[in-house]
TrEMBL record:
The chain crosses the membrane at residues 6-24, 31-51. InterPro entries: NAD(P)-bd_dom_sf, Polysac_CapD-like, Polysaccharide_Synthase-Rel. Keywords: Membrane, Transmembrane, Transmembrane helix. This is Nucleoside-diphosphate sugar epimerase/dehydratase. It comes from Citricoccus muralis. Residues 209-487 form the Polysaccharide biosynthesis protein CapD-like domain. Belongs to the polysaccharide synthase family. Signal peptide: none annotated. CDD domains: UDP_invert_4-6DH_SDR_e (cd05237). It holds the Pfam family CoA_binding_3.
Amino acid sequence: MDLENGVSPLCTGLILVFSLVIVGKALGIEWGLGAIAVSIALVFMFSVRYLKRLAVELRSGPGVRSVPTIVLGAGYLGANITRQLATDPASSYWPVAVIDDDPEQCNAQVHRLRVRGGVADLPDIIAETRARALIVAVPDPAPELLSRVHDLVQDQDVQIKVLPSVNELFQGDVRKVDLRDLKIEDLLGRVPVDTEVEKIAGYLTGRRVLVTGAGGSIGSELCTQIQRFAPSELYILDRDETALQQVQLNLTGNGLLTDSNVVLADIRDADAMKRIFGELRPEVVFHAAALKHLPLLEQYPAEGWKTNVLGTFNVLEASRLADVETFINISTDKAANPTSVLGHSKRVAEKLTAWTGEQTGVRYLSVRFGNVIGSRGSMLPTFTWLIQQDKPVTVTHPDVTRYFMTIPEACQLVLQAGQIGRTGEVLILDMGEPVRILDIAQRMIDISGKDIDIVYTGLREGEKLHEELVGYDELLERPFHPRISHARVEPMPVSMLDFADWSERLKHRA
């Protein structure tokens, strides 16, 4: 009921009663009669307006084709979503029940819907309401909650929808319910680490920054995050012209490729690196260019040597000659106790980075992390494609596990390393518990609703059953952040670079 619309009639009634108090006796009218009349009039007026509003809401509610929907979350966000869905004629979802695990919300009313229980009651509530969709209206829900919900409804023919984060939701139109399907990334069981990069990435502001491998998944996200800190120049370097165009589109809104900040070059070309770095004079360098597909490098180890080892040295040497102040080499967990060509080549790159830092006295360091969710050519996009094509999902071994992190989180760690990392170190993010690949494959198939087989192909040459983040001989400390470990890397002088010797060592690897 709109009280502000009742203010005027109330004022009129009070004036009438006040007038009767003064002149009522002279007219033979008791002032109490006026008070009763005003009260009855107000009750009647509010009742009419309430019934009118109720009729409007019922007429403006979801159409007959709307999907019966349960809303998980009776808080502010859930209440708003429920009201919006219930009063939007164009809504595809019709709220039929609200649930919440908070005992204080038990039997509360959310837009005329009673809170009917918690997550554990989902199967019964779905059966009673015949709901076909469930909206998780909880701010930034934990993976454990989403996994629990998914397990309870996976046999119920119920769609699970989630909302963007609270910041994303309310930066736009609050009246618009922007729902998306549940993704495997939501279920991986790991809460991203807040690296607080906003507080310490000021070393980028006003500086000339260069990113190698800028067209890759990590490189492109790095460029996006670096741009937020207003560098004086941001140079994007890659040998893939199409990838460079896409990065430029993301950064500037155009892909004209006429900007001198877009650099087409190959890190294998030592002379080109020295010339480019000499001309651009970058102050901060993020080295993300690398070959990363383990099976291919097992077949073509020389290619891993040329890019991951010699290419890294070319960038390091060009950085040294250009007086770069901060150099961050992006490594991989496969460099810890390496057993593959990829791991061995990236381990040498870490050692070369430490040696250059030792020679220059400048901050040269590495950052090591595990599998990045959704990166180009990684496991999740491959599984997604196989499922879309109704092809069997291939898993190397039923017990194989891997560490996972999101692309933005990986890039935040890289940016933070430039501030808190020390010369010759490798920084390692606490990545929680490793995840079994078979579980991911099964969940992705469940989400798709398809009947897809899983085929075991066997571990590939050089591949570990369980990845490691820390080498046997590495001592960890956490001097600056409780979730970021620092370890010293043994420097390797460039004089020790010998492909023949390296190849021989590969033959006798563990």
